[in-house]
Write a structure and sequence with these properties.
Layout: H1 2-38, H2 41-49, H3 53-80, H4 87-102, H5 113-121, H6 125-153, H7 155-160, H8 163-187, H9 190-198, H10 202-224, H11 229-253, H12 260-271, H13 285-295, H14 301-318, H15 323-329, H16 331-338
Helix pairs in contact: 2-14, 3-4, 3-6, 3-11, 3-14, 4-5, 4-15, 5-6, 6-8, 6-10, 6-11, 6-12, 8-12, 11-12, 11-14, 12-13, 13-14
Length: about 350
Amino acid sequence: MGITLLARIEKVKSPRKTVLTVVQFILGVIIIIILLHQANMPETIGALIKADIRYVVTGSLLIITASMMIALSFYFILTVLKYRVSFSSCVQANFAGQLASDLTPGRAGYFITPFIMGALSKTPVEPCAVATVVSGMVDFFIRAFLTVISIVYLIGPVESISGVQWIVATSAFILATSAVFFAVLLWSDRPRKLIIKLRGFKRISQFLDPYVTRFENFQREGVKAKKSLVPVAFAMLLTSLFDSMALFFFSLSVGVDLHPILFIFIYSLVSSFTYLPLTLAGLGVQEGVLAALLQLFGVPLSHGVSISLLFRFFYTVTDFIGLPPILKIGLSKVFDKTQM
């Protein structure tokens, strides 16, 4: 009866989710159009057309390399947990998750990653979920730290434009809160106690019961994963550095030559805005924040918007590397497993 009721609820929610997704996509496109209008559309398009292909290709390859580092962190964690998985499975699962995240609000679609990884490597979902969450937690902590110390680097411009202080504060809050949430989920006893309390309600317990054992296994594997934190931190730091350098090369492609270190901080600041569920993967929001930050350093708005569009386009296009594993497994199978 519980399963039937859940199926009915999902059937009602499905059209609403579709409408919401379409609305969020349209909102993101509208923000992009407004940015193009404000930046002088002919100048922005001209900068994109004249972009140096050598730098564009280099930036794209760096984005792919950054994603490979995330897959490497999965491999480290699962190896520590004593599961034999191929690096190829980790790479495919990560790109598949990233592709799904590009098409969902707050990048929520990334959570299909453990299910795809499990299907490809014949590994239980729980350790795959631990690999995903631990990597994400470490990534959030690193970027939150870089965001906070960016205040020192940006102190001159921040004094002249107080709005940037809100960008820094919002970015640090999003990243730090996400990191702490993942840490609590992995290692705190509070989630388990909450589940036990909720099981006292009959209507809720029928939905929770199938997940209790899985969550206990998840936390048990999470404790073991602590041994992987050092190599994972190194891999995730490289991820941020490679993505930052991709942004640097996209800037060079349109004739903007700023110090590479600056982009390490800018990337940490702007990447957090993709997790705001206002639009799909922060479409339009991230571009606006990036263009605004670049303006602080004398970059014309038209060039700032062109850089942000290059970054968005190639960040999304390279994620299509994850399409074959999704098609191989089948979307229905992946999402059926998420409902288990």
